[in-house]
Design a protein that fits this description.
The complex is a heterodimer of chains A (145) and B (319). Chain A is built from five helices and five strands, in the order αβαββαβαβα. In chain A, α2 crosses α5. In chain A, 36% of the residues lie in helices and 14% in strands. Chain A has one domain: Rossmann fold (3-Layer(aba) Sandwich). The longest helix of chain A is centred in the C-terminal third of the chain and has 18 residues. Chain A is an alpha/beta fold and 145 residues long. Chain A is globular, with a radius of gyration of 15 Å. Chain B has 319 residues and is mostly helical. Chain B has one domain. Chain B is built from twelve helices and no strands. In chain B, α2 packs across α11. Chain B is globular. Classes of the chains: A alpha/beta (145), B mainly alpha (319).
């Protein structure tokens, strides 16, 4: 049965990305869009593809400090993503709340509610850091397949 | 009996089945790579669509609570099977001629409608509002592009049939044989409106950017297939890959089937034609245009391709 591990190795070359904005200020979202869209940091060479539907996703990029208002929607969305999945928290907000950390409207750190596999700190993180985070997530994903 | 086995092999191995799937996915890989290069990106590996399909095999299929489970899970299968049979109907000059027992051009036209209908049923069975929007858009688009296609096919059939001394012939083998002796329809001024109409038709049928309205990722989140995940989503990818081969193969058979007599040469020329047709009609078009609204696309199709197709039919009948 040597074929299955081979196929799993091949499968990890096709990570599809899905973005969840958990109350982010859009700074990280712009960086995420930039990493994918501009030629210089093309992530399609890793086989990545942004998908519109959470059901198609493999790697979830979450930005923002998880505000109280969006919590239910984010958790519901997260459940829609089929296993095996890997979560990447982009920006400092999901880790600590960043500049919003004292706010009454914010539930950060986000890993109280959602299992986070990779943290990419920064406000906003550099595109290279996000790509490194995605590459790390692919490694973790390989073990879960 | 050997006839039946030959048909079965044609559907499952060559030119349907394994061959059509591999070719469709490879074309998709070339398309993505060339698109990336045109945008001065590196782009994915050429084998990327194969990786995607294998990946989807490892994912879990989720059925939404609002969905009709049986219909939801089995419609993509219908689409794949219909496209495999359709692929066995597409001739490759001097390599493969479809058996008259499977069908002719008319059967192919009917089979080509099934993927659209499958998308509509899948979208409505998933119980998602985005699926419902995709359903209605797919339906409108289908009404718009099916008319020109039928007229194009009729024009080619009548041209061939009248050339051969009859009225109309719907056998693709006859159409190819006629063009091999009388020259390709691509260079026949009488057929130019039909060629132009076909050039509008195939991006719409394949869901390429100016006409990818039912699946528009950025507005209806891939519409009908939004709720699909894992192996069932892979079936949709398989369906669209084989469909690409069928539609491009149909275009080649209808308008430019000329190829050398040898087996390898014939196949090679066919593959080159297919790649050229795809790069011009799909890759470049999808990169250089924006998405139309459904009403714009509908009016556009009822105006230009339909007009061209009607004109070509009229010219063919009169001349």
């Amino acid at each position: 049965m040597g074929l299955i591990p081979d196929f799993k190795k091949i499968a990890t070359r096709s990570p599809w990305l899905y973005r969840i904005n958990a109350g982010s200020c859009n700074g990280c979202d712009v960086e995420m869009a930039t990493t994918a869209l501009i030629p210089r940091y093309d992530v399609e060479r890793l086989g990545c593809q942004y998908c519109g539907s959470p059901k198609h996703a493999d790697i979830v990029l979450i930005s923002g400090p998880l505000t109280v208002r969006v919590k239910d929607a984010v958790l519901r969305m997260f459940d829609e993503i089929p296993e095996p999945k890997v979560t990447v928290a982009v920006g400092v907000c999901p880790i600590s709340g960043g500049i919003f950390r004292e706010s009454y409207a914010v539930l950060a750190p986000i890993d109280q509610y959602i299992p986070i596999d990779v943290n990419v700190p920064g406000c906003p993180p550099r595109p290279q850091a996000i790509i490194a985070g995605v590459a790390k997530a692919i490694e973790i994903w390989r073990e879960r397949l | 009996m050997s006839n039946q086995i030959a048909i079965l092999l044609a559907v499952l191995l060559f030119p349907g089945g394994v061959f059509a799937l591999a070719l469709g996915l490879a074309l998709k890989g070339v398309d993505r790579r060339v698109a990336a290069r045109l945008q001065s990106r590196v782009g994915p590996p050429l084998m990327q669509p194969f990786f995607d399909i294998i990946k989807l095999g490892f994912k879990r299929t989720m059925v939404p609570a609002a969905a009709n489970e049986t219909v939801f899970l089995y419609t993509p299968l219908v689409g794949v099977v219909s496209m495999l049979i359709a692929a066995a109907l597409v001739p490759i000059t001097s390599v493969y001629a479809p058996d008259a027992a499977i069908g002719n051009l008319l059967v192919l036209l009917y089979l080509l409608m099934i993927p659209g209908i499958v998308l509509m049923i899948a979208g409505s069975a998933s119980g998602s509002p985005y699926g419902a929007i995709g359903f209605s858009r797919e339906m409108a688009l289908m009404i718009a592009y099916e008319g020109p296609l039928v007229l194009i096919a009729a024009a080619v059939a009548i041209r061939t049939g009248m050339g051969m001394g009859g009225w109309a012939t719907f056998s693709l083998n006859d159409i190819i044989a006629y063009q091999q002796t009388h020259g390709a329809f691509l260079f026949d001024p009488v057929m130019w409106p039909a060629v132009a109409a076909f050039c509008f038709f195939y991006p719409a049928n394949l869901g390429i950017v100016p006409f990818d309205i039912p699946e528009a990722e950025t507005e209806v989140l891939e519409g009908p297939i939004i709720e699909y995940s894992g192996p069932t989503l892979a079936l949709f990818k398989v369906m669209s890959a084989v469909k690409k081969v069928v539609v491009l193969g149909l275009g080649i058979a209808l308008f430019f089937p000329l190829a050398p007599e040898s087996l390898v040469g014939g196949l090679l020329v066919w593959l080159i034609k297919m790649a050229v047709l795809m790069l011009i009609g799909i890759t470049v078009v999808r990169l250089s245009t924006g998405r139309m609204r459904i009403d714009q696309a509908f009016v556009f199709f009822l105006k230009w391709p339909l007009l061209l197709a009607v004109a070509s039919l009229a010219v063919v009948v009169v001349v």
